[in-house]
Structure formats: structure tokens, C-alpha cells
Amino acid sequence: WINPIVYALPIVGVIWFGVVQRDQDSRRIAAILVFFICAILFWAVFEQAGSSLTLFADDLTRNELMGFAFPSSWFQSVNSLFILALAPLFAWLWVRLHERQPSIPMKFVWGLVFLGLSFALLVPAAQLTAAGKVSPWWLIAVYFLQTLGELCLSPVGLSAMTKLAPAKLTGLVMGIWFLGTALGNKLAGVVAGEFNGKDPQALAHFFWQQALLVGGMTVLLLVLVPWVRKLTGETGPKNQSSA
Fold it and tell me: Would you state the CATH architecture of domain 2-239?
């Protein structure tokens, strides 16, 4: 019972601070909490990479590509390689777009979209395991989509926390952001307990449920984008954040 209290105290503290502060701080804290909830869900699904996807790679994916055999543990490096390759491209893209770049909540939407697509892609891959191990290209494509989602959400969220946090709460808000990552990882472990690599249909259903969960959150956030933009102060093209 101690863990829920430890997790809840900083969140309650931020909410209380937002209630007693002036309107601008209250609005920003409301936006922070929206991003915090999105981050929990994102990491709860994304961090299947260390559990469900690792089992999928080890048990159900061929560890051979174009005649080259490799240990299945190498799949764990695919995300890192994509980060190294794509992070400079994203940095250039946001600078290039400048005032035309998506708002912070829209970047979160795109992050969730790519994550949801990655798990939707795992559905046919899981079904194909009925005939044996599948091509490694399935997982490579999945990690590519997940990396796109991570680059849309993770650095943007970190930047948003520093910009939106009231001066007195900057450290606490940064801690809240990383608490979202911790909670997401905790939930990822719980969800991974439902992984069943021996039944292709059950496995496909497992991945499809997560795709639907992320899809539902994506639609909800998309509906809330205008409201969240007002909370963050991004009310027009010239106010677009460089996050």
C-alpha cells in the first residue's frame, strides 16, 4: 500500500499548487497533468519492448537477415540505432518548420499514432507465427514506428515540462514527468503478463488490444487539442512552441 501513496503524493501536491495559484499557473498545471497521463499510457505500451517484444523476437522471429545470422538479443539495439539516425532529422525538421510546426499536444498525438500503428502491425505478424517464425523485417518495422513515436513525444514532453512548470515547481514537475515513465514501466510489466506466444490468435488479440487502447487515447487527445493548446498558451500559429 505504500507504493500508491508514494506515487500519488507528488501528483496531489502539484494539483493542490495549481488550485491555489493564479489562473495562468493553474492552466499550465492542467496541461502538465494531461501530458503526464498520456506519457503513462505511452510508456506502458512502448516498454513492451523489454518484455513482450523480447519474447516475440526470441521465440517467434527468425534471427537471420539476408543470409546473415545474429543473436535475437540484437533486436534490442534496433530502437537505439533508429534514435541515432532519426533524432538529428527530427531536430532539423522542427527548426525548419519553425512557426508551422505542430503544437505540443499535436506532437503527442503523432507520438501515440505511431505507437498504435506499431502494435497494429504486430497483429498480422502474430497471426503468421502459426506457420513458424516470422521475418525479422516485421520487428524492424515495428521498432521504426515506435522510434518515430518516441521522438514525437519523449523529448517534446521533457521540453514542455520545463516551459510550463511554475518557477517554484520546476524540479517537482520534472520529477512528475519521470514518475510517468516509472508508472508506465510498472504497467508494462503487468500487461506483459498476458503475453501468450503459444497461441497465435491469442497473441494477435493481445497486440490488437494495445493498439486499440493507444488508438482510443489518440482520439481523445485529438479532441482535446484545442483546449490543451489554450492551456499551454499555444493559441495561434505565431505562438507555436519550439518544443
Answer: Up-down Bundle (1.20)
Domain locations along the chain: 2-239
Q: pTM to 2 decimals?
A: 0.89
For the segment 213-235, what is each residue's pLDDT rounded down to a tens digit? 999 999 999 999 999 999 888 76
**Residue of 149, 170, 150 whose CA lies nearest to 161:** 170
Cell numbers placing 188: 508494462
d(CA 132, CA 62): 9
